């Protein structure tokens, strides 16, 4: 099955922070892949902007290296990179001064779609927005793209929203949560709202509980300084896990359009109950084979920042009252896997008697890797000897079901950047959504500080602290094993 590539309109994209890590790893290789696929028109222009005094050729060299290093050139014809690089330019700008801005303004063609990607720390957002405005680059049609973290609490997020709102309308602001750009995350909506089968059962009457796990094997690596000020709660739960929770729990929007979808997500966030301290476990990873422990990684032997969180979350609305959601995420865990498991309730009455045992349907949606879906169905165990029941998986890997081309789908950043150019905000967070997520997160973090809580240690390569297992066990439930 070949996916259709619909070219976008010609555009000028300015990337601030164009020589930084995110640009080199994701944005530039992603743009190149879209160019290879024919989605980017030849008369588009990508302008790198950063502090460094490079000329355009030096920047092109940086782009070429990024493309080679981070996989941008897979399945691309020879010569395409040179063609792509001809569309790449560079201007050295000072975000807080005047250097470079007039030159940048002279290069941006106002008769095309203009997008400005702020791949820089949030402390520069205001300066960039202001200069885009004063150098007459921003008009009603321009778009700005901002990265997470969008603030570190409600106060800072509100201040950022206010700063951006001085020069840009909400319809021009694209707040990226790259999880929303993942193919299988969007598939959650397709599975829920494209099938008749699931939606009637998708509520507390039929669902016992839902688990959302985003497990990573990597540690904090070279990002210790940032991470130690954030922790798993700010780095993953407030945004990525919250988005997954919204998509799995929201009401069907009337249509697949930006505000209809985001209105429904916002209602979920606003219906979240405060989390009780005994419903949340924080962890910090210990050393592994040839790997230092968390505190060594972040160079602070007294760090109280969590690299793991497990929590029980409740949504107070008609659909979900009484069905807990268990969320779990952490670094240096046993396997890299992101998975959502919907555990249905027992059948109300077993006609097969107590000997048949307890059987439950479980729907597992694997977001990464090996994207797919499995539904456990109870059937009769074959053979003589009475009615013995057994649970068997109806297992579908999207790659197998849809063919090899399905593996060559755009990655999250590629898709999201193309959505910016198209002007489609469905997969971006709205300002009120981000603020609501912080309003729920803040008291949890404040509670930890007020109580002076220290995260529980866990072994590198494990499933997290044993307290997390005990937390769900108190409810008579167990976590799904973390495995690929
Ligand atoms: C980022 C976090 O937003 O998401 C990282 O800052 C995390 O800490 C990453 O590793 C996970 O993304 P993915 O796409 O690898 O699941």
What would you note in describing this structure?
By secondary structure, the protein is of the alpha/beta class. It has helices spanning 21-36, 56-69, 80-85, 101-107, 125-134, 154-167, 183-194, 224-249, 258-270, 294-297, 398-402, 412-422, 431-451, 466-473; strands spanning 11-16, 45-50, 88-92, 113-118, 143-146, 173-175, 207-215, 280-285, 308-313, 325-330, 337-344, 362-368, 372-380, 389-397, 456-458. It has a nine-stranded mixed sheet with strand order 14-13-12-11-7-10-9-8-15, with helices on both faces. Strands 3-2-1-4-5-6 form a six-stranded parallel sheet. β13 (372-380) and β14 (389-397) form a beta hairpin. The chain is globular and about 80 Å long. Bound molecules: 6-O-phosphono-beta-D-glucopyranose (BG6). The site of 6-O-phosphono-beta-D-glucopyranose has 2 residues, from loops.
In short:
This protein has 14 helices and 15 strands. The protein is an alpha/beta fold.
């Amino acid at each position: 099955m070949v996916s259709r590539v619909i070219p976008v309109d010609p555009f000028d994209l300015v990337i601030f922070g164009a020589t930084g890590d995110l640009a080199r790893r994701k944005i530039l290789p992603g743009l190149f892949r879209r160019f290879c696929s024919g989605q980017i028109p030849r008369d588009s222009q990508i302008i790198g902007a950063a502090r460094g005094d490079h000329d355009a050729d030096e920047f092109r060299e940086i782009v070429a290296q990024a493309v080679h290093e981070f996989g941008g050139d897979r399945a691309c014809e020879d010569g395409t990179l040179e063609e792509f690089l001809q569309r790449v330019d560079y201007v050295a700008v000072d975000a807080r001064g005047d250097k470079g801005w007039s030159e940048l303004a002279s290069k941006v063609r106002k008769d095309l779609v203009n997008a400005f990607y702020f791949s820089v720390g949030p402390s520069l957002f205001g300066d960039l927005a202001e200069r885009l405005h004063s150098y007459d680059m921003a008009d009603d049609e321009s778009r700005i793209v901002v990265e997470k973290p969008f603030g570190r609490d409600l106060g800072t997020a509100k201040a950022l929203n206010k700063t951006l709102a001085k020069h840009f309308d909400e319809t021009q602001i694209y707040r990226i949560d790259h999880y929303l750009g993942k193919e299988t995350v969007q598939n959650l909506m397709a599975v829920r709202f494209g099938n008749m089968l699931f939606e009637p059962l998708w509520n507390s009457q039929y669902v016992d509980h839902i688990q959302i796990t985003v497990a990573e094997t990597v540690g904090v690596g070279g990002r210790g300084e940032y991470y130690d000020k954030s922790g798993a709660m700010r780095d993953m739960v407030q945004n990525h896990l919250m988005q997954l929770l919204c998509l799995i729990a929201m009401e069907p929007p009337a249509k697949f359009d930006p505000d209809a979808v985001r209105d429904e997500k916002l209602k979920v966030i606003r219906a979240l109950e405060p989390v009780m301290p005994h419903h949340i476990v924080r962890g910090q990873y210990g050393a592994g084979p040839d790997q230092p422990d968390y505190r060594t990684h972040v160079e602070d032997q007294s760090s109280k920042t969590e690299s793991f969180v497990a929590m029980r979350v409740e949504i107070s609305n008609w659909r979900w009252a009484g069905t807990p959601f268990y969320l779990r995420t952490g670094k240096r865990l046993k396997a890299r896997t992101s998975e959502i498991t919907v555990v249905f309730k027992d059948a109300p009455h077993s006609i097969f008697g107590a000997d048949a045992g307890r059987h439950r349907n479980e729907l597992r949606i694997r977001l990464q890797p090996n994207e797919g879906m499995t539904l456990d169905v109870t059937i009769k165990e074959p053979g003589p000897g009475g009615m013995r029941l057994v649970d068997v998986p109806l297992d579908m890997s999207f790659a197998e079901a849809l063919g090899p081309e399905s593996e060559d789908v755009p990655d999250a950043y590629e898709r999201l950047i193309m959505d910016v150019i198209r002007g489609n905000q469905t997969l971006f967070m709205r300002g009120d959504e981000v603020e609501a997520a912080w309003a729920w997160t803040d008291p949890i973090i404040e509670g930890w500080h007020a109580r002076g809580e220290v995260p529980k240690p866990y072994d590198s390569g494990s499933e997290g602290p044993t307290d997390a297992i005990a937390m769900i066990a108190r409810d008579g439930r167990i976590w799904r094993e973390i495995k690929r």
